[in-house]
């Protein structure tokens, strides 16, 4: 059984495969748990592939460009906000807004990570990227998905909420877009770890 990622030791999370971490994410989705195990595996695999393929497509289109440069080329402004990053139980690092398209970086949300991810730890978890690069890249995936004609990954797998005869009430799986965005970031930035791990890095003891 896959455990909740928040309960796994960080060292174990840091070495886990994107597939394992994708499944951990899916297990926390209130609708994805209605999918059988085989479908969950297929959904995570497709989401990871979609994110990686989308990143490679942008790399070919904008060779040698980082997330900020790609965002600029796509006319997606990146703005920093000093808003409270905590909304209910959700800690915000960044957000994509589609009208008009722009990416918001929550500076107070990212700050604890930037304080921890320095020197050897930065190299271990980020490679040559910066923390903000990772979150800009993550939100770039959401923009790329929003403007293309393909069916969004969150709607390619649906959970049945209610069934009455031939009628079914179904819903998509929003977490699949987050899994894909993580794969996009990892591919675009050549990250050593699947970026979901960054949400838990502040648990590391400082050296």
The percent range for strand residues is 15-25%
Please indicate the count of domains. Answer: 1
Q: List the total number of helices.
A: 8
Question: How far apart lie the N and C ends?
Answer: 33 Å
Largest sheet: 3 strands, mixed
Rounded to the nearest angstrom, the radius of gyration is 17 Å
Helix coverage percent of residues?
40-55%
Strand order, largest beta sheet: 1-5-4
Question: Helices and strands: which structural class?
Answer: alpha+beta
- Report mean pLDDT, rounded to a whole number: 89
Order of helices and strands: HHHHEEEEEHHHEEH
- Overall morphology: globular
Note poorly predicted spans.
1-6
Counting DSSP E segments of at least 2 residues, the number of strands comes to: 7
Topology, pairings included?
Elements: H1 10-15, H2 18-27, H3 37-61, H4 67-73, E1 78-81, E2 86-87, E3 90-91, E4 94-98, E5 101-106, H5 107-116, H6 119-126, H7 131-147, E6 158-164, E7 167-172, H8 175-189
Parallel strand pairs: 1-5
Antiparallel strand pairs: 2-3, 4-5, 6-7
Could you explain how this protein is built, in words?
The protein has 207 residues and is an alpha+beta fold. It has one domain. The protein is 47% helix and 15% strand. The protein is built from eight helices and seven strands. It has helices at 10-15, 18-27, 37-61, 67-73, 107-116, 119-126, 131-147, 175-189, and strands at residues 78-81, 86-87, 90-91, 94-98, 101-106, 158-164, 167-172. It has a three-stranded mixed beta sheet with strand order 1-5-4. A hairpin with a 2-residue loop joins β6 and β7 (167-172). The model is unreliable at 1-6 (pLDDT under 50).
């Amino acid at each position: 059984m896959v455990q909740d990622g928040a309960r796994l030791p960080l060292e174990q999370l840091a070495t886990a495969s994107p597939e394992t971490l994708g499944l951990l994410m899916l297990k926390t989705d209130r609708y994805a748990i209605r999918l059988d195990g085989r479908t969950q595996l297929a959904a995570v695999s497709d989401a990871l592939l979609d994110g990686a393929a989308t990143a490679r497509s942008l790399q070919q289109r904008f060779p040698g460009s980082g997330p900020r440069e790609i965002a600029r080329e796509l006319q997606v402004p990146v703005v920093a906000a000093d808003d409270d990053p905590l909304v209910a139980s959700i800690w915000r690092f960044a957000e994509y807004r589609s009208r008009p398209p722009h990416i918001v970086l929550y500076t107070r949300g990212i700050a604890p990570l930037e304080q921890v991810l320095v020197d050897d730890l930065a190299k271990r978890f980020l490679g040559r990227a910066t923390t903000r690069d990772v979150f800009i890249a993550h939100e770039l995936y959401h923009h790329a998905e929003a403007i293309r004609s393909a069916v969004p990954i969150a709607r390619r797998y649906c959970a049945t909420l209610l069934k009455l005869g031939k009628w079914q009430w179904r819903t998509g799986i929003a977490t699949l877009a987050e899994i894909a965005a993580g794969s996009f970031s990892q591919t675009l930035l050549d990250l050593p770890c699947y970026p979901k791990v960054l949400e838990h890095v502040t648990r590391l003891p400082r050296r």
